[in-house]
Amino acid sequence: MPDTDGARGPAAQVGxxxxxxxxxxxxxxxxxxxxxxxxxxxxxxxxVVWAFTHDVQRSVLAALVPAAVFTIWRxxxxxxxxxxxxxxxxxxxxxxxxxxxxxxxxxxxxxIVKNLGFGALYAISSLVRYPLIGLLxxxxxxxxxxxxxxxxxxxxxxxxxxxxxGVFAIRALVQGRLYTQGDxxxxxxxxxxxxxxxxxxxxxxxxxxxxxxPPARRHxxxxxxxxxxxxxxxxxxxxxxxxxxxxxxxxxxxxxxxAAEGELSGGGGRG
Length: 271
Known about the structure:
The chain has twelve helices and no strands. By secondary structure, it is mostly helical.
């Protein structure tokens, strides 16, 4: 069997970098410029109108306009409306709550609750060894769940997941603090900083972490029940004499054992 371990190193890193660059690009994650506008424009409009009028109803109606326009736009173009509808639902809940209580800062309550919920979900997933970043990227990069059997790969996915826990925690803490102070104008504009800039930092950190370890893909010749970690250890044995003949020289056996041990310590084993 040809030795492909040496070729898999740099090539795997380049392929992984390209895959992550495509998966975590602006267009694929938030839907391009329109997706960015859908996520930030309604709250920005609300904050601007509130800063000038201090009228909850006018601010709410102003925020609902761009959310509704984007949803209708996607429906007319027969494009997926999941993101637009999700944003419209969140804006609608915040708008209803603000109108009901008469307090402008209540418009941001759904966003604060969402960040708390996502932060808890990501943290729990990492603690139970099913980190959400691994579940999301594993299938995208062709690993499926094989990365759970490779300790180094599991570790970087857990670290990347904790990065996103930090993102949601920062958002919830800052927004919660401004909410308790009753400052909806500052809360709205701070959301811009806590939105795309913080998101970009998290994406960059995720890429830097995940690219350190090649994907844990199963070898095409491996049996269906075999573990990915067992592949590198089996190749040195194939270079020697057949097992049936039982003639493995001692000089060749020691390097083979050392190579197998090195492969397992570098990325094999069970997670």
